[in-house]
Description:
Layout: H1 3-16, H2 24-45, H3 50-74, H4 86-107, E1 122-136, E2 156-157, E3 179-193, E4 198-206, E5 217-218, E6 228-240, E7 243-250, E8 267-274, E9 284-296, E10 306-320, E11 323-335, E12 347-348, E13 353-354, E14 375-377, E15 390-392, E16 398-410, E17 413-424, H5 429-436, E18 446-455, E19 465-474, E20 495-507, E21 510-521, E22 535-546
Antiparallel strand pairs: 1-3, 1-22, 2-14, 3-4, 3-5, 4-6, 6-7, 7-8, 8-9, 9-10, 10-11, 11-16, 12-13, 14-15, 16-17, 17-18, 18-19, 19-20, 20-21, 21-22
Helix pairs in contact: 1-2, 1-4
Amino acid sequence: MNRTKTLVILIAAAFAATPVLADEREHLELLRQTTLNLIDALVESGALPKEKADGLLKAAEKKAAKAVREKTSMEPKPVRVQYVPETVKNEIREQLKQEVLAQAKNERWAEPNAVPEWLDRIKWEGDIRLRYQTESYPQGNTAAKDFDPSLGYGSLTRAADVGATNSFNAYTGNTEDDRSRLRLRARLGMLARVSDSWSAGIRLATGNSTDRVSTNQSLGQNFNKYQLMLDRAYLKYDPADWLSISGGRIPNPWYGMDVVWDEDINFEGLAATLKPIINLDAPFRPFLTVGAFPMRESSPPVANSRWIYGGQMGGHWNLGQSTNFKFGLAYYKFQGLEGHVIPNAEYDSLLNVYTSPDYRRNEYESGLRQKGNTLFATNALTDFSQKTIWGLASKFAPVVLSAGVDIGRFDPVHLVLEGEYAKNIAFDRDEISRRTGHTLSDGKSHAYQVRMTVGMPQLKAVNDWQVYGGYRYVGSDSVVDAFTDSDFGLGGTNLKGYFLGARYGVDRNAFLNIRMLSADTIDTPTLIDSTHKFGVDVIQADVNLRF
């Protein structure tokens, strides 16, 4: 019998054993002795700390003395009550019992190894992944030196960093030499629920400040320590079951695959999701998500601050027989991301310097881009230096349709079919020509991906398994290459190909994953020669632990 039951039985027994006495004074003295014995028993059993018992007795003595003084001052002539009705005694006993039990529950007298109440409102979670990755380049890939735009007309490219050189004029890109490496990802997060409506989340992760879509850390740094970055930090407000608002560095609020947003990306800004509850038993439940996210806040403030605005509507539909369908239709607007030629007035050709402190305001910088988007040189027309300032040729406003169906008729084995299609409705060759001065004859503005998964929806136990595969096609200017998947084709757009994989649970919350991703370019990656191409086969073998 645990301490809580012991406490209740002792209280009940003490009051039940109290007889109805003719002499009220004798009755009160017996009740006092019974209470003292009860407190001593609670202390001996460990249910009530000795310090708390002494505090209760002192408080009771003070209240009793005060009551006597007040009664004496108000009633000059003491009145002796000879009889207290049994119903009144029972009511007093019940009230006292409930007060003691409530205090015991709140202060956890009867819980062994009890922890402070505030710890129950904090949830910890995390994961560690160890990965072995190989990258194999097929014969016929264009050499890294041929990606150098200066070898052509020097003003257009889709892979500016492959043809980049270091301080020794050596090319830093790799398109021909196979590579193998070990990689590590570690994440630790905390979710604190302050109340029924307010909560906060913080997560730390490996990675670096120049890679927004990956938290991987390659091993082989001469045993140097790794960086631990602030991956998430946000507040969340849930005033009702149908409304949720998040602000800060928040998890991805959008439903979908990784055609537009890499699975590791987090957003900075505000997002709100509405889930109207029309009928709790209704098979269809709609949702609406809106968000605004600053990409770059200019200082001093200028008109070309970069923002991402988005909205998505969709719903979850229970089709019966363990079949569920979910879809979302989204629109994303990238404001101020496209490039513009720097005015000649901001460049001093005699000194060979830019006079404007904000002359790189339209740059699509190397720390942001991956590869695949069409880039053009934004340098002033009078700037003939070798330092190219790259900007995005196209504007971006993709419309994205995402959908998935989960067929669980053979539970625990499920069949999941997913698809996503994106179309950049802001891609306009005429507008690109007017703004950049270049005519673009190739390039694609649409992307899609299909995927099929068979197995357990989540891998939580031993022998849980999944097999999956799919096809992916991402046109050069369909989505912003900075935020799309970083593994397929080693990241970016202008890629097509397939992927296959399998997962197997080796223990509780521990599983193995192996997958192959084969990708090739769609259009020329250099925009120098239409025969240039790039391809890579990536194999990843992971050990994943979640806690």
